[in-house]
Amino acid sequence: MRFIQASLGLLLATLLYGTHLAADDNSDHAGRALDIYTNIIERETSKNLGNVPGMARYLADQFITGGFAAEDVEVLPQGETASLVVTYHGDDSSGLKPIAFLGHMDVVEAYDKDWQRPPFELTWDDEYFYARGTIDNKFGIAQLTATFIRLKKEGYVPSRDLIIAFSGDEETGMQTTRMLAKRPDILAAEFALNSDAGGGIFNDDNLPIVYTIQAAEKTYATWEVTIRNPGGHSSRPRADNAIYELSQLIKNIEAYQFPVQWTEMTLQFFEQTGENLGGELGEAMIAFANNPGDQAAIDRLAREPEYVGSTRTTCVVTMLQAGHAENALPQSATATINCRIFPGTPVDTVAEVLGRVGDNPEAEWVLLGDPTESPVSQLRSDVKAAVARAVHSRYPGLELITYMESGGTDGMHFRSAGLPTWGVGGMFINPRFMFAHGLNERVPIDSFYGALDHWSIIIRELAGPGQ
Question: Does the structure show a pLDDT above 70 at 466?
Fold first, then answer.
């Protein structure tokens, strides 16, 4: 298989998207966005590598050479990672509070041996860009960074301050996120817009059916469960075995489904998405929206990884550790269980359920980290109107709906701190091809270029022209 390495962003932008780019600032903007995208994707910013600070410094340099004062660009080291805060000063003519813009610079691990393509090199075919982070969240980072630089070069002065807050460990401990969500200048914002959520949904014919705005998300919680055993020599097997017992506990959890839950927002999401999607799946969505107790609809949605998380709390085993030698009985076996908890359900309740369903009183359960429960952000009319303006510039008349994220984002910490937050990213994609965190992550090339004006339209609508 032949791979092409991205270079010379403007040339590549012209080759890939030539008929859509005029010889004006938008061509420069496209080239800049692609250059930034390429550079940050080729920085392997997964955990424990220490590469996030270098990415933050690279982005800081882009802002400074793009016209931002050095004192308005802050790289904030934190252990092996870092965050980035950039302030775009307005003239305060509107008298309105600032707007915060969120994204994260880190990515989930990816291994060369598993991928068909090099995970940390931007490659492409006729339809997609491929690499780890093409979606999550270097798409949003590149688009926001290039947009701020574009507006600055155009001489745009907003009527209120705009603040970028890029975190460095959203995929792990979210310590930089927690720090950013405590900064007085960011919490002084009227609201936050997150590039790591929201976006348009394509059907299997690559036609847009709806644009989604993330207004809530599930609580992220992870447990480690360990079975211990005296062990011994493998030639003298015991009747009890830590791996076998852990395996039974895991199978018990696999067989369990948490009760179906819903909110007015999730029912509205399924009704509107089902009407636009059509077909068997669309009918199941509508049936569920009309009657959340419809077992046939529940079962149909449970088969869809893209949508099952919107119907209930989910817990799944993601990692295993066991044994210490091939010729020794295991002295311990540990499973990592990651849960995405439906809003309103206490973490302690899920812990009780896991312990009961696992059905092993000797199991040791440890909750990792400090789960954050976050409220729903009720959508503002001005935010919806601004996002609609951006979306309709690409797809006139497309419906916009709010939804609950089945995953977790930085937004949870800002919502918990009292800052309303909405995910309004510029990506359009078929959910079936959403390979974020998975093999051969990809994003439609047309989606990347189609998003070039997304943030500038939203900013101009919400921050207007200054005096």
Answer: no
| Cα–Cα dist 167/175, whole Å | 9
The Cα–Cα gap between 407 and 374 comes to 13
Q: What is the sign of the dihedral through the CA atoms of 245, 246, 247 and 253? A: positive
> Residue 104: how many CA atoms within 13 Å on its side-chain side?
30
| Residue 287 φ then ψ, to 5° | -65, -40
Cα(57)–Cα(83) distance, rounded to whole angstroms?
10
What number of other Cβ atoms are within 10 A of residue 41's Cβ?
A: 28
Query: Model-level pTM?
Result: 0.87
Q: What is the DSSP string of 8-69?
A: SHHHHHHHHHGGG--SSHHHHHHHHHHHHHHHHHTS---TTS--HHHHHHHHHHHHHHTT--
Q: Alpha helix locations (H) across 66-105?
A: none
Omega of the bond leading into 39 within 30 degrees of 0 (cis)? no
d(CA 440, CA 118): 9
Please give the domain boundaries of the chain with CATH numbers for all domains: 9-197+409-463 (3.40.630.10)
Pairwise CA distance, residues 402 & 126, whole Å: 32
DSSP letters spanning 346-362 = -HHHHHHHHHHHHT-TT
Residue 426: name the closest of 408, 409, 449, 406 by CA: 449
Per DSSP, the chain holds a count of helices (H) and strands (E) of 15, 19
- Per-chain mean pLDDT for the chain: 93
Report the C-alpha gap between 138 and 124 in whole angstroms: 16
DSSP secondary structure letter of residue 378 = P
Q: What is the DSSP letter of 113?
A: T
3-class secondary structure per residue, 212-225: EEEEEECEEEEEEE
Return all residues near 155 (Cβ < 8 A) that are at least 6 apart: none
Tens of pLDDT, residue by residue over 157-204, are 999 999 999 999 999 989 999 999 999 999 999 999 999 999 999 998
Q: Give me 116's structure tokens.
A: 């068909």
Maximal C-alpha separation, the chain? 83
Taking the C-alpha atoms of residue 246 and residue 237, their distance in angstroms, rounded to an integer, is 17
- How far apart are the C-alpha atoms of 198 and 177, rounded to whole Å? 19
Distance of alpha carbon 29 from alpha carbon 149, whole angstroms: 9
Neighbours of 219 (CB within 10 A): 21
Distances (CA, A) of 335 to 67, 218, 258, 317, 420: 50, 22, 19, 7, 35
Q: How far apart are CA 108 and CA 88, in angstroms?
A: 30
